[in-house]
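Worked problem 6 (solution included).
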Amino acid sequence: MLEVVMNKQVDIYIAIATSIFGAVLGLLLAKLFSTDSINEGNGTSITQTVSINTINNNSSELRKNVQQETELFMFIGGLFVFVGLTLYGFFRTAILTSLLYGEILLLSIWVGAVLRSMVNGRFKGVTWSLYLLYVVAFMIMYFVAVSFAFNPVHAPENFQYAEQIINQSGWSGLKRYFLVDDLLWFSVHLFGICALFFTFWQIAMSLLHIVVAGNSISSGKPDTWIVKKTAKYCTPWSNIIFFTLLILLGGTMVSGIFLHWMQYELPVLVKEIMNVVLHGRG
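Solution. The predicted structure is:
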């Protein structure tokens, strides 16, 4: 792990710079698009304080009362994954770099927007601070997971050259450098990439709903189209568990740890358990 961190020093510095830029951009965008309801009689601003639970309850009602166009989101999500996986072999480095810094930039913008709303008194409550801390922790976990996709712990011998090989010789060139048994590793690796893409999509929609719905509720405005369509993604507290598990699963799959454990460590563990069950600890 320490070796991976040392090799990624430049990426870490870029990630920190990107997160700072994103947070500042989020502050500016929140200020640009924020609107307060003005009482024309006395000129005072009417702002409703919003908590995470307020948004959660509102999204729950929307899910009950509004017919979701799930087909549209499934199509967009499916297209996103399909295109990503199709191009992954030829543009692996570019895709992983975009995924890494795109996620950091997006979440940093969200953090900046939420911080501004908290300072202005729109968003209040300890739950906002807790959720902000989780989003920051999520960024770190996601950074580590994508870093493992760049440099897996367990991988076929020539994996680091796969992108170069496929660009020079196409898919047919891979057979000169990889074994048939390596196909299983590549399949698990791609499933891990898919999990990371899926997690990115899910948290992006969830955080988008939280910040947009929160400002709509605070200003007393009716729910917009985007609030209604992203309501199904907003289950903040269960998402913490769900996203964390997805990150762990995706990270272990892209790193090769999952397959290595399944092939080498799990059989030994099962054998030891069976020996204890059949013959006891003595």
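Discussion: The beta strands are 37-38, 45-46.
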